[in-house]
Amino acid sequence: MKVITTIDEVRDQVKAWRNNGESIGLVPTMGYLHEGHQSLMASAKKDNQRVIVTIFVNPMQFGPKEDLASYPRDLERDKKACQQMGVDLIFCPSADEMYDANFNSYVNVNGLTDALCGKKRPGHFKGVCTVVTKLFNITQPDRAYFGQKDAQQLAVIQRMVQDLNIPIEIIGCPIVRESDGLAKSSRNSYLTDNERKAAVCLYQSIELANTMIAQGERSVATILSAMQLLIEQQSLAKIDYIEFVDLSSLKPVSQLTQDTLCALAVYIGKTRLIDNFIYHH
Ligand code: AMP
Description:
With 281 residues, the protein is of the alpha/beta class. It folds into 2 domains: 172 residues, HUPs (Rossmann fold), CATH 3.40.50.620; 94 residues, 2-Layer Sandwich (Pantoate--beta-alanine Ligase, Chain: A,domain 2), CATH 3.30.1300.10. It contains 10 helices and 9 strands. α6 packs across α7 and α9 runs antiparallel to α10. It is globular, with a radius of gyration of 19 Å. Bound molecules: adenosine monophosphate (AMP). Adenosine monophosphate (AMP) binds next to α2 and β5.
């Protein structure tokens, strides 16, 4: 497994694989890897002859009051997690390697980024789309793998690839959870023991919603207030948003009469966690 920090070296390796006719799968990450990331690597490994994992905590997608400085990092552990999955190349550039002093070009997807996390994190998806486009151009993969955990990100990337005719197949992968249901996340490492216990309320609210839906409930207002009530019982939790939106437009819906994404963001102490589920009509 190669660990590379420069764009030129990645290009050389990619060219050699391409000359051999080998297919390439890309898994973009911010590191501090867990089984969620590894499930993406496993899918990439299954579909492609070569797998590239990128590890880059992208400053452009963090707001000024967000956790860029404290975001967890452990490259040595990440190397082992990648090695274990048979990854061929890790690209872990510095911020200077990705953004030179005169950098001034951006990729913006409109509409889909107005909802959900886009509303709460201005500029976030501009940063994501810009860095993902750069990583696509640097690694030129056949396929790229993204988690359903970041449902809006997946929808935005799919839109971007379609709109800009980027010749890469985007593969969405299911959410990997802890045994109590908490979605795995690098940010779970911020949680104290008590917060970790409280954090299960996100998943519990999803389970409650699914139980109500199974019993025939279709009113968003009714399901939403039950979810809110459950989370508000947890004193360490503070809801940032819970929204039901049409899966393709990400516009709010009031009834579950079409494919619907229910996405939520909840602060557990100072840590902002996200989760979601999809209702298929
Ligand atoms: P991150 O390092 O948090 O930027 O995540 C990198 C990729 O891994 C994104 O496509 C995420 O959606 C995906 N991912 C993160 N956590 C999970 C999870 N629990 N299950 C599935 N995919 C995940």
